[in-house]
Amino acid sequence: MAVASRAFEERLKAYEGRAAAVAGVGKDPVNEPMIRHWCEAMGDTNPAYAGPYATAPPTMLQVWTMGGLSGHTGRSDAYDELLGLLDASGYTSVVATDCEQEYLRPLRPGDEITFDAVIESVSPRKTTKLGTGHFVTTRMDVRAGGEPAGTHRFRILKYAPARERVQEPGRSAPAARTKPVAGRPRPVINRDNAGFWEGVGRHELLIQRCAGCGTLRFPWLPGCNACGCLEWDTIEASGEGTVYSYVVMHHPPFPAFDPPYAVGLIELSEGVRMVSNVVGVPYDKVRIGMPVRLGFQRYDDDLELPVFHAGDSGDSGDSGDSGGSGKSGESGDVGVAADADAALAGGGG
Fold first, then answer.
1. Which of 212, 247, 269, 277 could bridge 229 with an S-S bond, Cβ 3.0-4.6 Å?
2. How far apart are alpha carbons 108 and 266 in whole angstroms?
3. If you average pLDDT over residues 119-147, what whole number do you get?
4. pLDDT at 144
């Protein structure tokens, strides 16, 4: 890995404060169908999001600014130049790390959305478990009918996967450049979800159950979102489920993943839903309502993940990838390598 040069980091810093998007316009006004689809996918039954006086869930703020499959229309030359500079220097992979939102006014059906965005910061070179790279933070100011409606900060890491060499401007290229096969991202295990991963190690899919009201919840949380109780126990899922929704990931390619492949939102027979890979069937044969069965797939000596097999029951302890395999990535508006692994890593599901 080449040592970062001060001159290169100064070039990156020069992009701070420059526009990332100018005079962006939402492709659609705030509308009831999109609100309904969002609420159905999230399982959010708040009455404020339906009826004649409906408002949009605040967390949909970014939705109204996204370019969709046809891509970005208002992105600035400066932002493209910054990403191109990072790409040319070997930081070709991208992963979303976090976002922050501030809500200034409710959004209602019919609101016309406009926005501007700025490159707020570019970090010095950082080394992470994924690899070495630079964090790029953009701030988007969203307006509804010309009035400030909210602020969305979005942070990505542009990085070179661990062990991959980076060639920076002005440095001699190595005689031979090799790119090792990247390992899958490791789940983030903390005190809130450690029990889930201990269950996975025993080939058990554990669901939290509130000790106060008995509500089942997934992914794992420190408290009940129905009654607020902090006490809980677990039940073991039967392993039966159906595909509630799914996406086929096409782009961008991401180390350790090989698109296209299917990532499903699986509704378990117990009533909770989780994101996981759908395996055992070609990606283009996955369908909503398809019955699936829990299995556990090993990817290396240290990583085993729950997956769902379409058709025949899956063997606990599968190894390797099967047809339509448990590989995952991301396809969408922001170009983020986020998928079933990322969802599991964040909270057990």
1. 212
2. 30
3. 91
4. 95
Cα 223 from Cα 231, distance rounded (Å): 7
Spatial CA neighbour of 267 closest among 245, 234, 235: 245
Specify whether the CB–CB gap between 160 and 90 falls below 8 A: yes
For 204, residues 6+ apart whose C-beta sits below 8 A from its C-beta are 236
Phi and psi at 140, nearest 5°, equal -110, 130
User: How many Å apart are CA 278 and CA 266, to the nearest integer?
Assistant: 9
Is residue 281 within 8 Å of residue 323, measured between CB atoms?
yes
Residue-wise pLDDT for 49-105, tens only, equals 998 899 999 999 999 998 877 666 667 888 889 999 999 998 988 888 888 999 999
318 three-state secondary structure: strand
The answer to whether the beta carbons of residues 308 and 266 sit under 8 Å apart is: yes
Question: Tell me, what amino acid is at 309?
Answer: H
Q: In 10 A of CB 209, how many CB atoms?
A: 16
3-class SS shares of the chain: helix, strand, coil, % to 5: 20, 35, 50
Report yes or no: 246 and 286 within 8 Å, Cβ to Cβ: yes
Structure tokens that stand for 13 in this block: 């810093």
What mean pLDDT value characterizes the chain?
A: 82
216-217 sheet: strands from edge to edge: 216-217, 206-210, 232-236
In angstroms, how far is CA 214 from the centroid of its own chain?
29
Q: Whole-angstrom distance between the N-terminal and C-terminal Cα of the chain?
A: 34
pLDDT tens sequence across 253-312: 777 788 888 999 999 999 999 999 999 999 999 999 999 999 999 988 889 999 999 875
